[in-house]
Amino acid sequence: MLGVLVGLAPGIAISRITTASFTENGPDLSTVVIDIPWLQILLPVLLISLVAGALAWVSVRRAPVVTRRAT
Q1: Of the candidates 54, 53, 52, 19, which has an alpha carbon nearest to the alpha carbon of residue 35?
Q2: Given a cut of 90, is residue 2 above it in pLDDT?
Q3: What are phi and psi of 36, to 5 degrees?
Q4: How distant is the alpha carbon of residue 65 from its chain centre?
Q5: What is the pTM of this model?
Q6: Alpha-carbon span 36 to 16, nearest angstrom
Q7: Among residues 41, 18, 43, 45, which one has the least CA distance to residue 29?
Q8: d(CA 51, CA 44)
Q9: Which of 25, 27, 49, 64 has a Cα-to-Cα distance from 41 of 20 to 30 A?
Q10: 23 is a domain residue
Q11: What's the domain count of the chain?
Q12: Which residues fall within 8 angstroms of residue 12, CB to CB, at 6 or more apart?
């Protein structure tokens, strides 16, 4: 999830700059419209997290064996 957030911020910033129209005074950012595909971003994040959690739940022992040491 952290990777998605780290990649999303610069991705939006770069797409905003590259789609801006330039005037004499610099880029005109007031007309920039960025369509973010939230479903395509969130669906893999949720599915991968659920699959990883399910695999961890299945593969970890329920009651670990505890041994006592002689003191």
Answers
A1: 19
A2: no
A3: -100, 125
A4: 37
A5: 0.57
A6: 11
A7: 18
A8: 10
A9: 27
A10: yes
A11: 1
A12: 34, 36
Closest CA to 20 of 7, 10, 29: 29
Domain extent for 30: 2-59
Establish if 65 belongs to a structural domain.
no
Please name the amino acid found at residue 55: L
Distance CA 9, CA 27 (A): 19
Q: Whole-angstrom Cα distance, residue 39 to residue 37?
A: 6
Dist CA 53 CA 7 (whole Å): 23
Answer whether residue 8 is part of any domain.
Answer: yes
Predicted confidence (pLDDT) per residue in 23-57, tens digit: 777 777 677 788 888 999 999 999 999 999 999 99
- The answer to whether position 67 is within a domain reads no
For 11, 12, 45, 66, 69, the CA distances from 38, given in Å and listed in that order, are 13, 12, 11, 46, 54
